[in-house]
């Protein structure tokens, strides 16, 4: 029985339980007659001159009047709430309310009859959904884990041109073939509390023997999507596995057996190709093309970030060789955490993000040369970025982005600049000519919903780290421009086709005189399947 029905029946029941032997004075037949004969229902409790908001039953009486319209007063405009109720008065009140309930019931019955067909369809759909949910619950492999997958097919080719005839011919012969490669990424996201996340990334790819996977004269043409296991192609391997969990309301901690530096930054300060299915070259996905500050070091690490009202501060540490146990070996097994052989990076970042823009300052300490991946300096002996465990680099980047309120002809703008300073532990002549300072910059534009809703286009230009100062003096002649252009076709919700072009103006500038030219032009057709 509903609450208002209980309120109505209660006084009637109490009245019915009164002694049957009531005298004529108690019955007050005239008062009951006046009450039951009142044909005009009260529409507002304010019509009663003797009912006040301080009365204990004020709200209950107001509900009966305004919601159900089954309370009438005496002709004098009084309710006489403190007066004892007779059985006749209770019967009159109950009769008025039951008549109203009957009217509502009849109205509902007419509505049910009118929409009987639609209600039957809805019931069938609900029953079907319940059956499907039951089937999914019975067949799901985990109640705590979700799988997100992405498979990419890449058809690509490139060619070299310029005045260095011999070098150009060798490059075209070794890396000029058209190739067809794939990358598969499966991410298992597991949550145990609803706020934490255990992320496991399985990956496979076969880009290792192409310029798109870093096997060219430089690794500047490495694609963002390229991958291959350390032991060879077509092997599924654990790319990342790390755990993130909140600490209080504003802190998030990360601990990873294999985790990337970028996974532990609260802000990735760029809006360029943020969906991960459209960009071409990996170097321009780095804010400001700063391969020093945003080194993407991958290994054993931990970090923490704080966020509040748009502000964010992050600190983290990654040891690329942290899985190895020999701190003194001179070969690739050298390793350990927080020692000279760790291949470690430490990163600190402070930034602010709003709905349409963001800005961040990022600093990283790089322990050795294996951590700067994108630089034309890698091709020349005299332009090595650092020199192993005998040197370290301090890298700083300032990055920002802005996005328009509405998609269309106004693009989002991402820009950044980075500077890297390298010091050498031993002051020997063997390090003379090594790069002691380098810089980088990048500007990226992206148009969402370009020509067709869901499609997008992008253009980026910049310079990967190029030498600006050499140890021991000398004038560096390093300066390579990187640019790319692409357009994304959103074929379906889960299939994207992205043709793109890239151009490197002087990828081997560290080996060339200023009057010599050598450039690289490439094209790719990437198809991305998301599931």
From TrEMBL:
Secretion signal, residue range per the UniProt entry: 1-24
GO biological process: carbohydrate transport
Domain of life: Bacteria
Domain SLH, first and last residues per copy: 44-108
Keyword Signal on entry: yes
Keywords: Coiled coil, Signal
InterPro entries xref list: Carb-sel_porin_OprB, Cell_Envelope_Struct_Comp, Por_som-like, SLH_dom
The keyword Signal belongs to this UniProt entry's keyword annotation: yes
Stretches of the chain forming a coiled coil according to its record: 94-139
One annotated Gene Ontology cellular component of this protein: membrane
GO molecular function: porin activity
NCBIfam families assigned: por_somb
Family that this chain belongs to: Belongs to the OprB family.
Protein name as it appears in the record: Possible porin
Protein's organism: Prochlorococcus marinus (strain MIT 9313)
Native organism taxonomy: Bacteria, Bacillati, Cyanobacteriota, Cyanophyceae, Synechococcales
């Amino acid at each position: 029985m509903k609450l208002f029905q209980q309120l109505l029946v209660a006084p009637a029941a109490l009245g019915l339980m009164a002694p049957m032997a009531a005298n004529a004075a108690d019955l007050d037949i005239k008062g009951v007659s006046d009450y039951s004969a009142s044909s005009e229902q009260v529409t507002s409790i304010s019509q009663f001159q003797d009912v006040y908001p301080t009365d204990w039953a004020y709200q209950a009486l107001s509900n009966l009047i305004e919601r159900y319209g089954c309370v009438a007063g005496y002709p004098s405009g009084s309710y006489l709430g403190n007066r004892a109720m007779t059985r006749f008065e209770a019967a009159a009140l109950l009769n008025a309310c039951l008549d109203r309930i009957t009217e509502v019931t009849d109205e509902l019955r007419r509505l049910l009859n009118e929409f009987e067909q639609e209600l039957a369809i809805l019931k069938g759909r609900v029953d079907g959904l319940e059956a499907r949910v039951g089937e999914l619950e019975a067949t799901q492999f985990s109640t705590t884990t979700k799988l997100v997958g992405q498979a990419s097919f890449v058809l690509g080719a490139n060619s070299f041109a310029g005045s260095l005839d011999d070098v150009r011919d060798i490059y075209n012969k070794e890396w000029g073939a058209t190739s067809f490669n794939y990358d598969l990424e499966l991410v298992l996201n597991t949550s145990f509390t609803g706020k934490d996340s255990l992320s496991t990334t399985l990956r496979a790819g076969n880009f290792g023997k192409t310029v798109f996977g870093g096997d060219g004269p430089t690794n500047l043409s490495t694609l963002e999507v390229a991958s291959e296991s350390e032991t060879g192609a077509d092997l599924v391997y654990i790319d990342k596995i790390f755990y993130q969990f909140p600490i209080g309301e504003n802190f998030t901690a990360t601990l990873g057996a294999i985790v990337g530096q970028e996974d532990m930054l609260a802000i990735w300060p760029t809006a360029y190709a943020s969906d991960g299915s459209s960009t071409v070259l990996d170097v321009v996905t780095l804010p400001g093309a700063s391969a020093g500050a945003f080194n993407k070091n991958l290994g054993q690490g931990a970090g923490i970030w704080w966020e509040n009202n748009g502000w964010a501060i992050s600190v983290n540490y990654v040891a690329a060789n942290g899985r190895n146990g020999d701190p003194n070996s001179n070969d690739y097994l050298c390793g350990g955490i927080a020692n000279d052989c760790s291949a470690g990076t430490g990163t600190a970042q402070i930034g602010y993000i709003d709905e349409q823009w963001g800005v961040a300052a990022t600093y990283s300490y790089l322990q050795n040369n294996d951590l700067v991946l994108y630089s034309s300096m890698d091709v020349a002996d005299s332009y090595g970025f650092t020199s192993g465990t005998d040197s370290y680099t301090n890298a700083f980047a300032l990055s920002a982005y802005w996005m328009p309120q509405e998609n269309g002809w106004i693009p989002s703008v991402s820009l950044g600049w980075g500077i890297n300073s390298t010091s050498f532990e031993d002051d020997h002549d063997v390090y003379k000519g090594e790069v002691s300072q380098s810089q980088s910059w990048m500007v990226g534009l992206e148009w969402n919903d370009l020509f067709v809703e869901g499609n997008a286009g992008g253009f980026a230009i910049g310079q990967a780290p190029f030498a600006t100062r050499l140890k021991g003096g000398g004038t560096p002649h390093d300066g390579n421009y990187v640019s790319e252009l692409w357009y994304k076709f959103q074929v379906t919700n889960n299939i994207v086709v992205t043709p793109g072009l890239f151009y490197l103006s002087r990828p081997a500038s560290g080996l060339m005189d200023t009057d010599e030219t050598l450039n690289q032009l490439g094209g790719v057709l990437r198809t991305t399947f998301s599931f």
